[in-house]
Amino acid sequence: MSGMGEKKKKKTGVLAAGLCLLTALCLVVCKDTPEAPTQKMEIGANPQIVAGGLWHAVALKEDGTVLAMGDNTCGQCEVGDWTDIVSVAAGSFNTFGLKSDGTVVAIGRKDFDITQVEKWTDIAALAVGCDYAVGLKTDGTVVAYGYDAWGNCEVEDWKDIVAISAYAHTLGLKSDGTVVVAGGKGIEDFGQCNVDDWTDIVAVAAGANHSVGLKKDGTVVAVGDNRYGSCNVEDWTGIVAIATDGWDTLGLKADGTVLLAGHADHWGYLPEVKDWTGIADIYMLQDRIVGVKTDGSLVVAGFGDTSMENWTGVKRKNIQMAE
In this predicted model, what pLDDT tens digit does every residue of 97-128 receive, in sequence order? Predict the structure, then answer.
C-alpha cells in the first residue's frame, strides 16, 4: 500500500503547475455552433462561476454572494461579506470578485498589492494568471497589474477586445475573431504565442505553455507545448466551451459531455471526466476539474477536496444544450 501514497503525490502534481494558477476558462454555449462574441461586453455577461487557487476554491451563487473552501492561510476564503458579485477569479493565494457596477473586490496574499486592482472601474471580465490580474473594460480596452517578468501585462495598446485569458501569457480575443497575445519573454518558447494566423475564434484559453482557441464552427485549434498531448484537439468537433490548466485542455461538447487532452489524459488520470453527462459549464482548477450541471449542481474530479459537490445555489448560466 505504500505505493499508493507515491501515486497520489504524483497525481497531485499533475494539475498543480508549481505555484502558478490559472483557471483559464472561456465559455460559449449554444444549441448549434457558437456565435462570434460582440464588442462592448456587458459587465459579467459571460461570468466565471467557479475558480480556484493553489489549495482553495470559490463559486458564485445565484444571489451574488460567494462560497469558498480550502486553504485560508492568506485570508483568501474570507468572502462571506461579498455581495453583488457577477463573476469570480482566483490566483494561487488570492480571490477576486467582479461586482455588478464594474468594480473589483479582492482578498488574499498581501505581497500582491490587491488595492491596485480594487481601483479598476468599468470592468466587464477578469482573468488571473501567475501572480498577475487582467481586466477587460467595457470599452474593449484591457488593464493588467502584477508580475510582469514575461511581458504578460503589456496590454495597454489592446483595443476591440471581447474576451481575455491568462496564465504565464495573456490572450485577448478581438471582436473580428482574431487573437492578440502578450508575454512569452524570457521563458521557454514552445510556440504558445503563435496565434497570429488564428481566425473565426469565439473563445480563448491560456495554459502554462500552450494556447487554445475555440472556432465558431465548434472545432478547436491549439499551439504550444505538446509533450503530453495538450494540443491534440484537431479531431474535436461540436465543442461549445474550452478550459485549460498548466498541461491540460478540456472541451465541453454541445451534448453535455466532456473531452480531455493533455497530462492527465496521457497518464490515465481522471477518467471519470469522460463519463460526465449533462454538463453546462466547465472549469479547470489547480488540483481538480469542476463541471456545473444543467441543474446547477457540481461534479468534481481530481486530487483536491471534492466536498464542493455539496454546495447548493451555485449560479447557472442561461444555456441551451443540444437536443
Answer: 999 999 999 999 877 777 789 999 999 999 99
pTM exceeds cut of 0.90 = no
Amino acid at site 163: A
Left, alpha or beta for 277 (phi > 0: left; psi -120 to 50: alpha)? Answer: beta
**C-alpha span between 169 and 6 (Å, rounded):** 32
Q: How many CA atoms lie within 13 A of 120 on its CB side?
A: 31
Where in the chain are the domains?
20-299
How many angstroms separate the Cα of 216 from the Cα of each of 194, 259, 278? Answer: 19, 18, 22
**Looking up cell 462570434, which residue turns up?**
36
Report the alpha-carbon distance of residue 143 to residue 47 in Å, rounded: 18
CATH fit for domain 20-299, picks 2.30.33.40, 2.40.50.100, 3.50.50.60, 2.130.10.30 = 2.130.10.30
CB 202 within 8 Å of CB 214 = yes
